[in-house]
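User: Thanks for the earlier help. One more: UDP-glucose 4-epimerase. Can you show the sequence and predicted structure together?

Assistant: Of course, both are below.
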Amino acid sequence: MNDYNEGNNSMILITGGAGYIGSHINKELNKKGYETIVIDNLINGHESAVKWGEFLEGDLNDFEFINSIFNSYDIEGVMHFAAFTSVAESVEFPAMYYKNNYKNTLNLLKAVKLANVNKLIFSSTAAVYGNPKKVPITENHPVNPINPYGKSKLMVETVLENESKSIDSDFKYVSLRYFNACGADPETEIGENHNPETHLIPLILDVAIEKREKIAIFGDDYETFDGTCIRDYIHVCDLAQAHIKAFEHLQEDETNKNPLKKSNIFNLGNGNGFSVKEVIAACEKVTGHKIKKELAEKREGDPAILIADSKKAIETLKWEPKFTDLNKIVETAWKWHKKLNE
């Protein structure tokens, strides 16, 4: 199923690879010539999104299932996306989030160690920072998550750090803290398909196709230039490239023994902030549809501004985001959204 092979036959295990971000990473890895094994329980993912590599349906709470994969395949590294990701849901069902995001990751790590696999890329989140004290947010910003989702991700980061510092282990990891993932594969083979949808851009596009009556703006009196929240939107294909760069970063460490290329944490963002009103305006421009808006109450815990400082990833990983223009980001999302709703 790999039509892209460039000669790199390293095998990567992708957990949660039938989801939004995991499926885009799977495509980019195969384009680069990597072989992939995708596992997903399909609670939120879609088997139709796994168009590359080999797919195995299963859950990380099943240790025997995970262990059998490492026993059956020569896996060089793991990219770990399998997680619940809704902040609101995590507040309502915290135990479910700690079990799925944290406890199940311990199962994965147990199998990783037994198989002597020593490289893992972790899908983390800007939610580990909580309400920022200063923006743009660097990796040195204090971590203080304010919801179970962010806390569960930080707990995994802590375990990964401890494992990497173990005296008898050569385990290494890179934790990638995303800001607002958005956009879709420009070739429209895959894209964003959540149910229910919680991300701003596809919700606005639902209004454009008359699937939704209006879009809610949660507060318009924030201390920002237009009163609405400002967020950092990073295209999913740029995220995918960062994961590959992070894995290569760990591979280089093995060959060069460079102390600068060991376990690390990186922010992944565009570096630009766009307000809710700016995103709505971009969607109106790209789609040609007027978007009906409704002012709603502020949501508890919504900071006014969240913008990433991604200089560390740009300098260390030699990563360069390609989709920096909001209209271009929305164009890829709109093209996919129309196809998904045909």
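User: Great, one quick takeaway?

Assistant: The mean pLDDT is 93.
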